[in-house]
What we know:
This protein is α+β, with helices and mostly antiparallel strands. It is built from 17 helices and 22 strands. The strands form seven sheets. Strands 15-16-17-18-14-19-20 form a seven-stranded antiparallel beta sheet. The chain has a four-stranded parallel beta sheet with strand order 1-4-5-6, with helices on both faces. Strands 9-13-10 form a three-stranded antiparallel beta sheet, covered by helices on one side. Strand 16 and strand 17 (409-414) form a beta hairpin.
Amino acid sequence: MVLGEANGSTTSLINCFRQEKKRDTIATDGIEINDWIETTTHQNQKITITFNTWDFAGQDIYLITHQFFLSGRSIFLVVFNPFDNSLVKVGYWLKSLESKLDKVPVLLVATHADDKTCNPTFITQVTDRVNNLYTQLNLPQLQKQGLIFVSSKTEKGLDTLRQLLVEMSLNQPSMGEELPARYRVLEDMILDARKISIPPTLVWSEWQKLAEKCAVNAGELSQVTDLFHELGLLVHFNDKTRNLNDLVILDPQWLAKAMASIISLKNSMAKDGILRNSDWPFIWRTAEFPQKIHSRLIALLETFEILFQIDRAHITASSVAGLNYTHLQEGLLIESSSYCIIPALLKPDRPNDLYMFWPRFDTQPTCARYYTFEFCPSGFFSRLMVRLMHISQPLTLWQNGIVLGVGQERAFLEMPPLLAKPRLRVEVRSNKLPTSLFRELIQIIEGLIEGCFAQDAQIFRFCACTHCLLKNSNSPFLFPLNTVLKSFTEKKTFMYCRRYRPVFVLQLIP
């Protein structure tokens, strides 16, 4: 799997491996999946290794979908330009892999080795910067395979990189595993089904029937499915909460294209995060996305939390920050089921009328929880927004925040960008504490965290002082959640804000 920046360097590198002549390429749009075959000698025998290459687009907007395709049975190349003084994107990819996968091999590849200034002194400087980055990030779950300098233009360093990848693949624990013949037959049937199935998807019962034709019984099917998912032959998630466990996607490239078509740099229809259902035929114009499957495909993308369909309710045009379609005026109702909201593409700024829905000063009892992350993958909050919209119509929303209303309760959630450490703020106002809405929000957030992060991810939870919230403080005193829970189990009635103001424990964890 090749990860990198938004400048086409990953694609150029893969083209060199595949010995394709076109070296000057445009940036990848989503994910491109191809094969590269390498012949080598191992233990005095000539062998052939087939590398399944996944070229991930480096633009920030695509990062929200990449998470669905990362596999633990992979070698990861993180490609970067050493003349860029910032290693921010390198750090992002390393932390993404650390948070999602366990003990995967990662090799850093620096491009532009043909540049005259890429001399031994420069290489030493870059190596020091990379080592400092590793030290700063502290990534014990990654198998660091070093740093290599290459040039796609002159092919300098490519033979060394090619040989290094061969050695890394031969050292993988799964390399050389003998798959049962019936698994091979099932693999061939998957490849055949890709050509004739539109869309290339099966529900679990259909997948089970296909496997039975290859003598793969129901008892081993889950294990085989997980293996094929890790190998990139299909896409399947054991996620019962969103009904993903019943869906098997036979062609990962098809799913990647479907996702990329919504957030593509080439698509301007959903630029502000709102997409009319009448626009879908103009987005999905190719034969692989016929109009008869559009409704199923939209539902699939909603299941993957890329978008949310407005249905069973009305929402005013003013409730979506930055909505600027000329045919929609302030306060005009958007007709039911006629639009989709794509949270990742919403405008980033708070709406001007935010305080109509969430007044700056309010006397209602308020409870709040703050989550601080050492690292948070791109797309976490947009996925959270989709989950939240399933429980309540949004009163207003923007790329980094949302205000919800359920009965007499109001909720404000925001994850501001550009903080040194990502922080999620969750506040609920109600006539009475405790509040059922707050509990439901926390349950949704914790469920998403469980699916997005490794078990040992550093996530810190805090409860905000209710007195500070009533005073509308921008910096309420924060009690560590584990301390609050300890006081609760010890049956303490109060805790103390800044050591002198008593706060009811039950109001901190409603």
